[in-house]
Amino acid sequence: QVQLQESGPGLLKPSETLSLTCSVSGGSIGGSQWSWIRQSTGKGLEWIGYIHHSGGSNYNPSLRSRVTMSVDTSKNQFSLNLSSVTAADTAVYYCARDSSHYWKFDLWGRGTLVTVSS
Amino acid sequence: QSALTQPASVSGSPGQSITISCTGTSSDIGTYNLVSWYQKHPGTAPKLIIFEFTKRPSGVSNRFSGSKSGNTASLTVSGLQPEDEAHYYCSSYAGSSTVLFGGGTKLTVL
Does B10 contact A at CB distance below 8 Å? Predict the structure, then answer.
């Protein structure tokens, strides 16, 4: 049974870079697209971007200037970097799988809370 | 790109049916048959319940159904049960390898 687990610092200061990793267990990272999605308190879900196991990627236009994603197939992991964070980036961050390449997220991690505060 | 529009809340009594709308534009819902719906209980990860407007993943109750009309997608939950109380989110492919989500709808089972 494939599982996803997010990991990374839970507290950042404004202007720092958010770095999260999603570990894929029970299956291969190959063959799927992998996304990061976040939810700020009291708000809806926001798609941050995706990366393919081959390294191809694309990001939400509203975050594109600050986002970088990478994949490490040898470790079965993919990562998110979000630079110059502000309080508005405080959210629960989820990693998710799209195994069909039809833009549906059929497997999610449990999410990790990232707080940006001075 | 703007988020898809959902009502903030809907409610219904056990056994009744409710419908949640998700309105987009001709650039997303109106063009692509790639709308999904997710159920989210507090403190848990979202769960895919509908994809490609009308399809259900294996294991999802047939009380959940989806439809589309123009630029609007809809999720119907029939035979409401207490465990259906949750937030529901729609998403749509929006072209150029991007995805939009709706703001979410809180379903209350009275």
Answer: no
In angstroms, how far is the first alpha carbon of chain A from the final one? 40
Could you tell me which residues are beta bridge partners of residue A22? Answer: A6, A78
Tens of pLDDT, residues B53-104: 999 999 999 999 999 999 999 999 999 999 999 999 999 999 999 999 999 9
B52 touches chain A (CB under 8 A): yes
pLDDT digits (tens, 9 = 90+) for A31-82: 899 999 999 988 899 999 999 988 899 999 999 999 999 999 999 999 999 9
